[in-house]
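Collaboration report, partner site 2.

Our partner group contributed sequences for two proteins of shared interest, and the home lab folded both. The records are reproduced in the order in which they were received, starting with the first partner submission.
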Amino acid sequence: MEVIGPAGSAAGITAEAASEAPWEIPLEIADSARARRRGLLGRAGVAGALLLTPASGVHTVGMRFAVDVAYLDRELRVLAVRTMRPGRIGLPRPRARHVIEAEAGAMAGWGVRRGARIVVRGAG
């Protein structure tokens, strides 16, 4: 995975779908066990998205809002996108290596769907 900039820092994400213009989206990176466990728990929302890495599945137990979840392979290609209500447990995806979480409805608006490639850029 190409992440430019310090681990755990704010970064940006671009979703490159074949038929849509790329979107620049603020991204937080959770790349430690502690940061992945915390995820979006206790928050009222998220500005942009959260990348959990490495990760192959998520849960929304204890969350206050529904989220879109994109499962990514090693090359940051989207394997699946699901919307999860609070209190749910998502099954791990065998080929997934990373997961992106955003507020419900955001991924469709950004053009993130199966087959899209995600590009992560550093904050600078």
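Second partner submission, folded after the first:
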Amino acid sequence: MNLSETITSAIVVMASLSLPVILGFLLYSTLHIRKDLNKDIQDLRKDLHQDMQSLRKELNQDISAINSRLGRIEGRLFGADSPA
């Protein structure tokens, strides 16, 4: 076996030994990233839900204020005898 074949054999052996390590690292990285993304998605859903609840509360307050004002306007237009 000459030097060139020895070097080639050594490179092939090293590559074949490091391939599982590289694939394992890629798998670990992928799973870790996926875990982080799932947590971020859960946090965003929670924030969105809280924002929607706040907006719904504000909208209901605005509707109540509008209804109250419309009731006062209706009272002025039609007097106290109008049906409610």
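Feedback sent to the partner group on the second submission included the following. The chain has a mean pLDDT of 89. The radius of gyration is 35 Å.
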